[in-house]
Specification:
Helix content: over 70%
Strand content: under 5%
Radius of gyration: 23 Å
Number of helices: 14
Length: 270
Amino acid sequence: MLLARSSVEACLLGLYALDEPDIATQLKGAYVKALDGLLGYLIDDGLVSQELVSQSVTAMGPSSNMASVWKMAQRVDVAMNKTHARGLYRRFYGPTSTLFVHANASSLLRHVGTNNALAGRPSMPWTRRSAVHIGDACVGILASPIAAREGKPVAAFDEYAELHLASAYTPLGAMVVKNLFRSVRPAQLPALAGAMKALRAYGNSPQAAEDSPDVREARAQAGFDQFIKVLGPGLPNDIVLLLREDFVARFLEAIVEHTTEGKGTASAGA
């Protein structure tokens, strides 16, 4: 899981570096700034003075803050006129940071069982296979623009990245699917399938194109609420809200694409 997160971060940094003419200066400035923290324990142990560390760091050149990973993703998407980098950050980097890296309510709750008792092993809100797919996808995502700048074919890299991305659940998606197998009863499946079919049909219909944004959003929210009653009982409210927001945004984007471009379907959002 940590390797997948590191792969995303390295991929975003690589993409960012492609359009930053002073990237070497930025990296060196951030490295110099980090030295003060790396050497701080020597001061605490009385081995060197603060003055000596400051002089050594200053001698290496000016220090500066590197752009955050999110800022890098934003810059990359502006440069490439896409939203892929931000999607990579939001779907995988942010959730893996929250669930596996930082100590917070979400990561600590992995150690609590369904009976509110301490679990023998922490729950796994993602899948190993998805983590591997993301690491592989990052190879293709970064290789493609590098190859393009060298005048080399990029189709194989793009296909490689797309196939791996398509095979990976997001951490939130994995949580819902795992909960599905635990909670859905066979008798609920026909109603669930019917609700999905109805929402997909609405998204592709002329009526959706004519409705106001507020009406479309209300239909998407109602559809999600219907699904989550079956698919996600017991999920934390903050997770449900995140899933709801993502579902509605994707559904509305798909309607707009279907309406304005005359291609694609809202089923991708659903």
